[in-house]
Predict the structure.
Amino acid sequence: MNGPGPSRSPVRLAARAISVAVADTVCAPLAGCVLAAFARSCYLDANGIILAVVAPALEEGPFSIVLREETAPFGDLDAGEQIVGDGRRLRLGGAVEIDLTRAAAWDPRLSPVAVPREAAEAVARRLMARAPEESIAALLPEILGRAGTLPAARPDPAEARGIATRAPEAEPPHFAAAREGMTRALAAVRAGRKEDLAAAARRLTGLGPGLTPAGDDFLAGLLLGLHAARVESSARWRAAARKPAAMARELAAAEAGAAITAAVEGRTTRISLAYLAAAAGGLASAPWHRLVKALAGHPRASTISARTERNEAPEAVADAVDRVLRVGETSGADMLAGFVATLLAV
């Protein structure tokens, strides 16, 4: 009678980069389980902290371990499988072992920049022209129009894909609630009302399909907008803070983050909540860092080129927007909607 065959050795991989936001967890003894696994990524619960292990094409993120190898057997992992790490190696079930010793540290904190309004309008036009129809970014022209912040120049209808007018019955089922929540969230940001922002967050969270629902992505983008742009916060928040205007942006972002994360806890997935908490702290993935850097270099109105005057974003901004749009099926577009709407609202 034959005994059981030898156990299969795990596939050995190496980490290229680790977010400094989770380095203390990753580089110490840990235990936990796999939460979800996909073709190019997996999510882990490590000592109660959410980690993302991703292929290099997905780039650095707020709580990620980026591999050196493009392919990894994440498909061999099941939710609930145990993980264990000793600070040098991380073992995922019996399928994967990751060498952590040569990983570089990556800082996910966004640096605030002075974003010209022209830059925010360029992003809005690019987004409205290229957003997938399934993204709640398709509601952006209506939302910005209600707020009186719609850019004067609209994208060429022949190029626009996501802003086509549809009868309400033809919209995805979560659009009606998203329309209300987005409108209320932006009004709360402009008025500096944390309680109203929390109510809008409760309306938005969990709306839409996917690992990070569309409403959550919009809220994450809103928070990144507050963190990234050196803009004056609302008069009410500034007055309440009793601090110089230079300090008001940080307070507004921090208070908005606290209000939103408290409001959505228990109403969405753990992974989505982790991304919202990261955005509340001003932590973002690599495509967002490129976008903010490009926005800082956008020409102001007095120096805008003829190309820009034809409603086209400068090349660096357009490329950065397109890279964000490639994140997920609609997640990038949904986050961009919250991000740019916030820049135009405050």
Q: What stands out?
A: The radius of gyration is 21 Å. Residues 117-345 form one domain. Confidence is low (pLDDT under 50) at residues 1-6, 156-164, 231-238, 301-311.
